Every structure is written in C-alpha cells, then in structure tokens.
Amino acid sequence: MTTTQPMHPLAMTVNGQPVQAQVPARRMLSDFIRDDLHLTGTKRGCETGVCGACTVIVNGRPLKSCLSLAVQHNGAEIRTVEGLAEGEKLHPLQDSFERCGGLQCGFCTPGMLMSACALLDRTPKPNADQVRKDLSGNLCRCTGYSQIVEAVLDAAGVAHGN
Ligand code: FES
Ligand code: FES
C-alpha cells in the first residue's frame, strides 16, 4: 500500500529568483535544492552535519542544508554556489580558489565558497585565524587547508601570512 505524503507550500528566493513549490514536510533543504531545483553544485557528503559540503547561505548566514528541512525556510533568501558568478565573470572567491590552489577534486569547494562568502560579507578583511574559524565546519580531504585560507585572504585583498 502506498501512502501519499501531505505537501506544504514553500516560497523562497534562491539566487535572486523567486521559487514556489509544494514539498513534503520531511524534505531536507539539501534535497530540495539539488533534486527539485536541480542546483547540484551544493553537494551531499556525510548528510550528518559533519563535512559542510552542503553549505548554502540562508538569510546571510552559512547553513548546512542537510540538517535542515526545506519548510523551515519558507520566506528565506538562499544563495547557492550557482549564484556566485555573474554570467561568465567568476566571483572573486572562485577566482582566488583557482589561482591559489584552493581546490583539487572540488567536492568540498561549493561549501567552502559559501562559508567563505558569508564570512567576507560580514567581515570584509578577516585575518587568517578568522578564516580558519569560519571554515572549521567544512572538511577537505585534498588541499591541506592552507591554500584555501590563502585563497580567502587573497579574495579579501588581505596580505598572505596575516
Ligand atoms: Fe551536510 Fe556533510 S552533507 S554536513
Ligand atoms: Fe577535494 Fe577539498 S578539494 S575535498
């Protein structure tokens, strides 16, 4: 016997575009973003809140979207990695990650970029300790992290080694 889950209306802004949908109450925000909106830049890694690959920005704050229900964000303003570049022009963080070697396999990169973007929006000139602290919820298996910190400082126009 199949049961039909009740659906709930959801309205939000995603990367500046209004989005309206009907979702089951238990649909995770990460699944809604990837499977319903087809914004697959946001990654599913651990799905337990550990790796940070699913990080998006919700109302200006980084959020691990695998831990949060879509319906909790009715009315929210959400940014995903797809919203960073302007057409062909990369966001300064994307440009710096590429130039500074802040990515290798790239799986962690969307989450790293969104955590870094939220940091720079709040603190345009962070020091290295602030970058490390704000990216501490994002795991990377490839880079050893120092190039990521360097890339964020580079994007902020802060001299390396601060
Ligand atoms: Fe969300 Fe790992 S997939 S924290
Ligand atoms: Fe591979 Fe970070 S670049 S996990």
Q: What does this entry look like structurally?
A:
The protein is of the alpha+beta class and 162 residues long. It folds into two domains: 7-83, Beta-grasp domain (Ubiquitin-like (UB roll)); 92-159, [2Fe-2S]-binding domain (DNA polymerase, domain 1, Orthogonal Bundle), CATH 1.10.150.120. The chain is built from five helices and five strands; from the N terminus they run ββαβββαααα. It has helices at 29-36, 92-100, 109-122, 128-134, 146-155; strands at 7-14, 17-24, 55-58, 61-64, 77-79. Helix 2 (92-100) packs across helix 5 (146-155). The longest helix has 14 residues, at 109-122. The protein is elongated. The model has no long low-confidence stretch (mean pLDDT 95). The structure holds FE2/S2 (inorganic) cluster (FES) (2 copies). One FE2/S2 (inorganic) cluster binds at residues 103-109, 140-143.
